[in-house]
Structures are given as C-alpha cells and as structure tokens.
Amino acid sequence: MKRAGFATKWLPILLLVPQLTIIAVFFYWPAAHAVQSSFYLQDPFGFGSSFVGFDNYSDLMDNREYRRIAWFTVIFTVLVTFFSLAIALLLAVKADKVIRGAKSYRTLIMWVYAVAPPVAGFIGLILFNQSWGPLTRLIGQFGHQFTLGVNYTDTAFAMVLVSVWKQVPVNFIFFLSGLQSIPKSVREAALIDNRSASGRFWDVTFPLLAPTGFFLLIINITYALFDTFGVIDTLVKGEPGNNPMTLVYKVYVDGFRGNDLGGSSAQSVILMILVLALTVFQFRMLERRIHYT
Amino acid sequence: MKRFTLAAAAASLLSGAAYAETEITLWHAMGGALGETVNAIAEDFNASQDAYKITPVFKGTYEETLTAGIAAFRAGEQPNILQVFDAGAATVIGAKGATVAVEDLLKESGTGFDIEDYISGVRYFYADSDGKMIGMPFNSSSPVMYYNVNALEAAGVTPPKTWEEFQTVTAPALKDAGYVGLSQSHLPWIFTENFMSRHNLPFATNDNGYDGVDGTKILVNNDAIKNHFKAVTDWQDKGFFQWFGTGWGDNQTPFEEGKVAIWLGSSGSFGGLSKKDLPFEFSATYLPYWEAVTKEPKQTFIGGASLFAMAGKSAEENKATAAFFEFLTKPETQFFWHKETGYVPVTEAAYELAKKEGHYEAMPAAEIGIKQLSLPAGAHTKGYRMGFYVQIRDVMNREYGRILTGETDVDAAFANIEKEANGLLERFAKTQK
C-alpha cells in the first residue's frame, strides 16, 4: 500500500515556514536576546555595557529579597492553584446536579471569566479600600483591622482571593464538561455499587476526572505564576513598597521601572528554566500515570 | 464653480508651502488637570508663531514615560522632548549622547542662556558636575507641610517649626482634639532625600554622586535619619502619625477627609487641593526640621521633573525645541503654570511677576514651595545623582514599610538599605563603561 504523503520533501517545509518564522521571530529571538543580556550590565540607552559573566545570577542568589520573593511565589502558586481547583470542582459537581435553571446558573458562574485581570484587581481595590471597602468592614467586624497595601499578610490575602476568584470560572467550565463526559452507564453502575455520594465521587468520578484535573493543574500553575501580573500590579497600585510580589512582577519592576536590563534578563532566564522544568515534569512524570480515555 | 475649487485648492497648497511648520513632540507624565495645563501651554505656543508646532503626548507615570523614551530612543523613534523625573536624572544624564544639554541647545539657537536667571534651588539639580544645565527644570516642586487650619485652631496650636515642637506640643494637642497629627505621601522623597538637604547632610560620596559613578556610596545609614525614623515609629505608637501605605493618594485622602491634621505633600499638590472643595480651610508652611540636628535649616531639593532635548534630531527640529523652551521659561508662561498647578516658577523673573500680580497676597500658601527652595543653600543641597535610583527608592519604600508595620527595626532596615543601595550603585557604575 502506498503511504500517503507529499510528493517532494520541500512542500511540507514550505508550508511550515510561516509558523516557524513566527516562532523564531517572536519566541526564540527574544529569548536568545534575554540570555545574552543576562551576561551584561548595560546602560539603558544602549551606550555603555560591561560583560559581567554570571554576576547578574550570583547577585540574585545572594539577594535575600529575591529569595523571599521566590518563596512567596511558591506559596502564592500553591494557594491559588489549590483553591481555584477545589472551589471550581465543588461548584461543577453541584452545578452538574442542578436541573431547573441549569443554564442561567452556569452562565452566572462563568461570566467572571470575561473580567480582565487588571479589572479584577480594581474590583479588589474597591472591596478592600482602607476607609470604606465593604470587605474591609466585614473583616473589621471580626476584630481585624484589614489594611491593603500596608500589612504584608493582608495584601497577600487580597492577591490570593482576587486571583482565585478570577480563575474559578475557567476551571469550572472544564470540570463541568469533564463531568458531563462521564458515561451515564458508569454512573448508574456506581450508583448500584455504592450508596454513599461522597464514596461514589472519590472512587469513580474523581479518577475519571483526572485527565481534566491534570491539564487544569498545569494551566493553573502557569496562571498563578504569570497571568496574575495584572491583579498584582493593580492591587499594589504600581508601587511595590513592602507589598508581596511574584517573580514575574519582580522582572517588571527591575526591568521596566528600574531599567536594569541585565538583572531583569537574568530573572527572565530563571523563569524560562522554571517553565521548561514544568513542561518536562508535565510530559515525563505525570502523563504516564494519567490515562486519557 | 469648478474653477473656484481649483483656485481654492491651489491657494491652500501655496499657503501650506509658505507655512511649512516644523513639528516636534513632547512626551510627558502629567495626567489629569496637569495634562490639560500642558496642552494649554502647547496650544499657546503653537498659536504664538507659525514656524513650529508641538504635540504633547501623555505617556503614563514618570517611570513609564522614562521607559517609553528609552525604548523609543533605542529604536530611533525618540520624541524631541522627554520629561524625566528626579529619580531618573542619573540615568538620562549618565547616558551622554542621549540628550542635547539645554544650555548648549539654547546658546546655539541664539536664544541665550544664563543659569543665574533661574531660582537658586533649581539651578543645579539637573546639571552636570561642571554646573552645565542638561535638563530644563519644568515642573519643579518641593515637599511642604500642609495643615488643616480649623484643626490646629481647635487644638489651640500653631503649625510646628521643628519636629521637637511637633512631638511635644502640636501632636498631643491635636490628638486631644480628635485628630491624627501627621501623614506623609512619599517616604524616600520627604523623609530621606529632603531630610538630608534640609539638615545639610551629605547623601552620597563623590559630592552626592555628581562627581561620577565610580565608587559612589550612599550615606543613608546615619544617626540623624535613624533617630528620625525611631521618632516616627514612636509617634505611630502614640497615635501622632499614621502611615497608609506606599501609594501617594492613600496618605493624602485622610487629610482631605479631615482625619489627619497635617500632611506632608508636594508644593505641586497646591493647585489640586485648592480646586477640591475641602470641608476645612488649609494652608501650608515649611517642612519642619530637627533642632537637635541643625540650628540652621537649609533649602530642600526640587522634586518633580525636567525636560530633556533628545539627541539625534535635525537642526531644524532642535531649533523648534529651543523655541519651545524659550516660550516655556517666559515669565508669563511660568506664572500661568505656577498659578494653575502649584509647581514653582523656575525663573526669578517669573517669581517677580507672580509677586507683582499679587498672587501670594490672595494665597500666601502658594509661595511656600518657592520660598523653601530659596532658603540658604548648604554644601549638600544642590541635589544628588545616583544611578538605578528608582530601585533604590523601591528598596527604601520596602524597608520603611517594614519598619512601620513592625516587621523590622530601624537599625536593621537602614543597614539593609545601605547594603542594597550600594550594590545597585556598583552595578550602575558598570553599565556606564
């Protein structure tokens, strides 16, 4: 039997050229540039520069503040990922059971997805306004004077809350479709085997949701690491001060506010390595254990 | 009919040729009401002559404007004029070849330039170590003390001249009258940089950094300023002082709401405050000082920003830029700017005009900024020049925030600021090679 394919080997390459060009110009070239800049200390206007080897990296490693920001990023990512997934899963399981008004219920949960991160941050600013924010008042009822932008923990709490709120709808959509793709026969069989709803959930539904859950885990980690930038920038009002921040925000602060191109390039390279590690982890470690049906 | 249109078209073409305007651009960071005033000045300039046309473009915050200017310069798309703020001065002045010194620009265009025309406080902040003016001081301001007249009357006190008076007399009386004594809007600017100039203390080695980047070290870790911050935390504990975060507005709002009786802000805030319908009468006076540190308080640094003529433009466009600078420093323009915004007039002639027009008789508080900048100068009051200063300010803000939230103590915080700032200065020196 003749194998289906192209007559010449040049045609497929030609067809791939636009895609490859885009990747090369918009991804590899800037990435290579960042790697190169990370070995220099450069005048922002481009007049002077010195080659400093790995100094930009070692300066970061020696900087107690950078380690503190890295540690905050880890905690922030874990919290945002866990709560976004857990709340979305709970809502999806409940929404799956709703019969009357199911559509409007789902739409109401989903539409937060349309809110842009800076807008979400702005809503957070209003809710947590120091003098008249409704959430500030609510927390005040419990005897805690909540001060966004003053107290480190309070600001961190607001960042996590707004980031989770913004991400729940995405996860909800995926979990819901995941739930609805579980065959009815399987559910009915489970119903006969196990009368406990929570037992059925953990033994049958949850494992069947694993592919969706794993995919969402990676998406959420990336979200917490990178896409929360808008939320953080709005909540700190562009002034880092003593507020918590993530590694990505630190790249922005040093590169775009401070014009330290070498230092922020080194930080970008570190983030690139992090993403690379995450991707390898995704494909090597977890994909093997998850069975997509 | 047809002939008429043709004739009209020809005429308009001809007139277009006759009035070929040289167009220049100005990138600035003046939002809101300030931006409208900038636009008004640009329109006046365009209407005042036919040869040149300037287009002002708002580019966001000071930091964003500087970054946009740098990116544009590297791409060869720089504006003719870029507004750069005090903390970015070292970056833009350090990059020789990025700008044309305003002094050279004005001399070459035949406009003439005399640094003595400028009020003493603004002369050398944007100058190089030889005293040549590089950037044209534009929106110059200084931190001053605003106070709620009604609150002070209710407490039976007068605005404090010294911090000693504030902590022993003013603040306790204000507290009894139900007010928080003090808030401020910019710890690095007001309680650090201007703390140094008011008390005439050196801020950095190498003549506050003017003599070059090599080996410049910050001198912030000294007892005078540490005692000041220890006093501030003490005031905070006693309810004399409150800190509402690093943002400017968060600290100004409680003053406007009448909760805080004294607020340290910018002389440039005057215009905005007087346009707001505040529920009380306000006034302003000099920034207090510690009598324990000095008996002869000096002038403060100018804050705000200045305008830099970017390099790489045609001689024709540079002439247009020079013409705009000349227009901008005219007494009438400066007086208009001063009146509308509260930023100080940068030339002696404009100051004289404002006095002659009786501006300060109606509003004595409007004169405080310029009077404070005209106080006696000291050895360390002309300004400071430190690279990566935006990040150094960020480090200060972070450590001060931690002091005021009890995460760290004053000694540890200042040791940290000194260490990190010197690391940044060392790194900046390497970028200038």
Walk me through the topology.
The complex is a heterodimer of chains A (293) and B (433).
Chain A: H1 10-37, E1 40-42, E2 49-51, H2 55-62, H3 64-97, H4 102-110, H5 117-127, H6 134-141, H7 152-180, H8 184-193, H9 197-227, H10 229-235, H11 247-257, H12 261-286
Antiparallel strand pairs in A: 1-2
Chain B: H1 2-18, E1 22-28, H2 32-48, E2 52-58, H3 62-74, E3 81-85, H4 89-94, E4 99-100, H5 102-108, E5 136-139, E6 143-148, H6 149-155, H7 163-176, E7 180-184, H8 187-198, H9 205-208, H10 223-238, H11 248-256, E8 260-266, H12 270-275, E9 282-285, E10 305-310, H13 315-329, H14 331-341, H15 348-356, H16 359-362, H17 368-373, H18 389-404, H19 410-431
Parallel strand pairs in B: 1-2, 1-3, 7-8
Antiparallel strand pairs in B: 3-10, 4-10, 5-10, 6-8, 6-9
Give a short synopsis of this structure.
By secondary structure, chain A is mostly helical.
Task: Give the overall shape of chain B, derived from the CA principal axes.
Answer: globular
- Strand coverage percent of chain B: 5-15%
Q: What is the assembly state of the chains in this entry?
A: heterodimer
* Alpha plus pi helix count of chain A: 12
Global mean pLDDT of chain A: 89
**Compute the gyration radius of chain B: what is it?**
23 Å
Average pLDDT confidence of chain B is: 91
Basic shape of chain A: globular
Strands side by side in the biggest sheet of chain A: 1-2
Number of strands of chain B: 10
